[in-house]
Write a structure and sequence with these properties.
The chain contains 3 helices and 11 strands; from the N terminus they run βββββααβββββαβ. With about 200 residues, the protein is mainly beta. The chain folds into 2 domains: about 80 residues, Beta Barrel (Thrombin, subunit H), CATH 2.40.10; about 100 residues, Immunoglobulin-like, CATH 2.60.40.
Length: about 200
């Protein structure tokens, strides 16, 4: 069960196809589909008991997905104490949104888009837009900008923090400061991707 691509409460079926050893630890290899947003979701057996936590997939593979066995989760919960039920996180009259307690970090919450190089490549900067789809303004938006070469492989990355606040759309300008010059990156880049890694609600 998980929220693949932001589709909350999605159930998919599969089997435990193998138990893999990774050093001194173990992973469950499963055929139940996993997509971005599924990670952290419970893996259930036929009785509805949690036997693992979805964690990873092999891109380009077929039904090669992995979960952490629940025994690791039991050991972790023993250290952090009891978990707060989601039902207890309903907003009170003084709060504007449940997002502050549940995170609100769905793929559609805050999005980076409209990447463009400046006209003068020797100035060494690019621009992109951040769109906030939440009712609350956000700040400290952490973006990972990935430059891909024409063969589809990552060429270079850059971590950008936008202080905000951002209530709707905001155009951002970021300098190039990586291992390659701006003109090199621009000429070698086939496409770019902007991933929003984190943000804070202003309230």
């Amino acid at each position: 069960m998980g929220n693949p691509q932001g589709l909350e409460g999605t159930f998919s079926q599969g089997i435990v196809s193998s138990i893999r050893e990774v050093g001194a630890d173990k992973l469950l290899q499963i055929t139940a589909p996993i997509s971005p947003g599924s990670s952290g979701g419970p893996l259930l057996n036929g009785k509805g008991e949690v036997i693992g936590v979805s964690v990873a997939t092999f891109r380009g593979g077929q039904n090669l997905n992995f979960a952490i066995p629940s025994r690791y989760l039991i050991a972790l919960l023993a250290k952090v104490g009891s978990a707060t039920p989601i039902a207890a996180a309903k907003p009170s009259g003084a709060e504007r949104s449940i997002l502050a307690k549940l995170g609100g970090r769905t793929p559609e919450a805050v999005i980076g888009s409209h990447f463009a190089w400046n006209d003068n490549k020797f100035m060494g900067y690019y621009t992109f837009s951040i769109r906030n789809n939440l009712r609350e303004a956000v700040r400290d938006v952490v973006c990972l900008v990935i430059f891909y070469a024409h063969d589809g492989l990552p060429l270079e990355t850059e971590l950008v923090t936008v202080p905000g606040p951002i209530g709707g759309n905001l155009a951002c300008r970021s300098p190039r400061s990586g291992r390659l010059g701006a003109d090199e990156v621009r000429n070698l880049t086939g496409k770019t991707e902007i991933r929003v890694l984190d943000f804070r609600l202003t309230q």
